[in-house]
Amino acid sequence: MAVYTDVAADELAAFLASYDIGELLSYKGIAEGVENSNFLLHTTAGSYFLTLYEKRVAVGDLPFFLGLMSHLAAHDIVCPQPVKTRDGKTLGVLAGRPAAIIDFLEGVWPRKPNVAHCAAVGEALAKLHLAGRDFPMKRANALSVKGWRPLFEQAAARADTVQHGLNAFLSAELDYLETRWPGDLPRGIIHADLFPDNALFVGESLSGLIDFYFACNDILAYDVAICLNAWCFEPDHSFNVTKARAFLNAYGKERPLSEAEQAALPLLARGAALRFLLTRLVDFLNVPPGALVKPKDPLEYVRKLRFHQSVNDIAGYGVAQTGLPA
């Protein structure tokens, strides 16, 4: 469960007094998310999410995240909206942490994503990229290629305790990606963390995208590569080319990938796999004392990375280059 900071009932009641969302009926910590402390609130006016932003989230970035959600909603991207206090604020302080209340969206995230889920996410991601074109705020991606070596250095000394030879494997992959990472592909707002648990569905219909706390400005096709890693592998870590084809074709119908983006996709997918491998490895080796959170398996991304290393072009993801018009 992702609850790092406990909240006392009297503190929460005092915090809610500045909102017009009724009286508190109940609240409980929820498992979704690993970066912040999250609670589901039930009040006399309805249901809401309460998020306490922990140390990994910079306070100065919160206006970007909250503003982006409002911007996307204005462009018909279904996502949670920050609830404002009576004096118009979307951010407060609770239990010594920055805190915000977010609208509750109906739906559940798919534990076993199917082809229809993947297609719906591909379409939604493309629309998000298009909607973000006129968002005025900027945020650099601290977890793009320049941030990977510092992560590796945090884990290098103990990497081989997780898997023999992991240190050398990561070092070689870093050397490869750092010298080849593209600098001239289309850029814009990306979600950067669109995993199945950040997409809500009612049946096979997408009901909303959530958790924008990694959103930033970066290569748009890198966001596509993140989703290939997140949505298109099976529980045994085999790649499902049918899901990938559905995702990429749905994305391309809304925002066709350029020839350069298509050519770079295998490299970007390697980078995305490495990024999540490294953050998972650091978290696996450094679980905060007393945190009610189970670290995710970093070795899942070793297997994904090895797959992407074997892919030569976009056809390896089930789509011929002519399938996505340049």
Computed structural class? alpha+beta
* Poorly predicted spans: none
**Second rung of CATH, namely the architecture of the largest domain:** Alpha-Beta Complex
CA radius of gyration: 20 Å
> So how many helices?
10
The total domain count is 2
What is the CATH topology descriptor of the largest domain? Aminoglycoside 3'-phosphotransferase, Chain: A, domain 2
The CATH class name of the largest domain reads Alpha Beta
Major sheet strand order: 1-2-3-5-4
User: How many DSSP E strands?
Assistant: 9
Major sheet size, sense and barrel closure: 5 strands, antiparallel
Indicate the mean pLDDT.
92
Helix content: 40-55%
- The CATH superfamily label of the largest domain reads Aminoglycoside phosphotransferase (APH), C-terminal lobe
Tell me about this structure.
By secondary structure, the protein is α+β, with helices and mostly antiparallel strands. Helix content is 40%, strand content 14%. It has ten helices and nine strands. A five-stranded antiparallel beta sheet has the order 1-2-3-5-4, covered by helices on one side. The chain has a two-stranded antiparallel ribbon with strand order 6-9. Strands 7-8 form a two-stranded antiparallel sheet. The mean pLDDT is 92.
Secondary structure blueprint with pairings:
Layout: H1 9-16, E1 24-29, E2 37-43, E3 46-52, H2 62-74, E4 92-94, E5 97-103, H3 115-131, H4 145-155, H5 159-162, H6 166-180, E6 187-190, E7 199-202, E8 205-209, E9 216-219, H7 220-231, H8 241-254, H9 259-285, H10 299-309
Antiparallel strand pairs: 1-2, 2-3, 3-5, 4-5, 6-9, 7-8
